[in-house]
Specification:
It is built from three helices and 17 strands. By secondary structure, the chain is of the alpha+beta class. It folds into two domains: 93 residues, Immunoglobulin-like (Sandwich); 70 residues. A hairpin with a 2-residue loop joins strand 5 and strand 6. The model has no long low-confidence stretch (mean pLDDT 86).
Length: 232
């Protein structure tokens, strides 16, 4: 039953919670405002509009109450609850509202060349920071990220999820072949110093041979002469 001094407060909220757990509103001569902060559940956002009723009468936003859909702050003016003519305006308070599901968007990864790539996380609401990782196969190297669709800007392997799905391509290129070092040329074998040289040095050996022959002939002549003298 309605108590004119303690009207009930009913939060008819879906996927929304209120920090004001009071189930009754105490009426006083000062006509205090009713205040609360609404918070959306995870995966939901606060609605742009809520419905506030007093004694089955729908109140007017910004005239009878204020509501900020960003911060969730709600203020129902005391005068709107009690009114100037209590018997006709006072009544139980009802707050109605439903959380709005936050859209979830996905990231798809393609590759060109030989290598693998991934995104973390692979999905999320708009504003989620996505981190990209690429790993090239042996003999290949990562070249660049290409945005196939989604209209995002990638910086330091990261981007923020927009209000749509995104497709990213990781491009790999083959590494250039390593240049081979030139073969060291074979050095020619040095001539044996013990062998007689040819060309200009041949004359030296010829004169030495003639000199040796002349000395031998002279010694032979001297020997014959000596033997002849002894026989006489």
């Amino acid at each position: 039953m309605f108590d004119p001094q303690h009207p009930t407060v009913t939060n008819s909220l879906s996927h929304i919670t209120s920090d004001n757990a009071a189930t009754h509103y105490l009426l006083t001569i000062n006509k205090p405002d009713y205040t609360a902060t609404l918070t959306a559940d995870k995966g939901y956002a606060l609605p742009d509009e809520i419905v506030v009723k007093v004694a089955e009468r729908v109140l007017t936003r910004d005239k009878d109450y204020t509501y900020d859909s960003t911060s969730g702050k709600l203020t129902i003016f005391g005068e709107s609850i009690r009114g100037e003519d209590p018997p006709s305006t006072i009544g139980d308070i009802v707050i109605e509202g439903s959380g709005v599901p936050i859209p979830i968007y996905s990231v798809s990864i393609e590759t060109e060349g030989k290598g693998s790539a991934s995104a973390t996380p692979i999905s999320g609401p708009a504003g989620t920071v996505i981190t990209l990782v690429a790993s090239a196969d042996s003999g290949w190297e990562f070249l660049e990220w290409q945005v196939v669709s989604g209209g995002v800007g990638i910086s330091e392997n990261k981007f923020k999820m927009p209000n749509n799905n995104v497709v990213i391509k990781a491009v790999f290129k083959e590494k250039p072949e390593e240049p081979t070092e030139p073969t060291e040329p074979v050095k020619p074998t040095e001539p044996d110093q013990s062998l007689p040289a040819t060309g200009e040095n041949a004359g030296i050996y010829l004169w030495a041979s003639l000199l040796l022959f002349a000395v031998s002939a002279l010694l032979l002549a001297l020997r014959k002469k000596r033997m002849s003298e002894q026989s006489d």
